[in-house]
Amino acid sequence: MHVRAALLDVDGTLVDSNDAHARAWVDAFAECGHAIPLERVAPLIGKGGDKLMPEVSGVKSESDEGKRIDTRRSAIFKERYLPNLKPFPRARELLERMRGAGLTLVVATSAKKEEMEPLLEVCGGTELVTLRTSSDDAENSKPDGDIIAAALARAKVGAREALMLGDTPYDIEAASRVGVATVALRSGGWEDVALEGAVAIYADASDLLQRFESSPFARR
Question: Is pTM, for the whole model, over 0.90?
Answer without folding.
Answer: yes
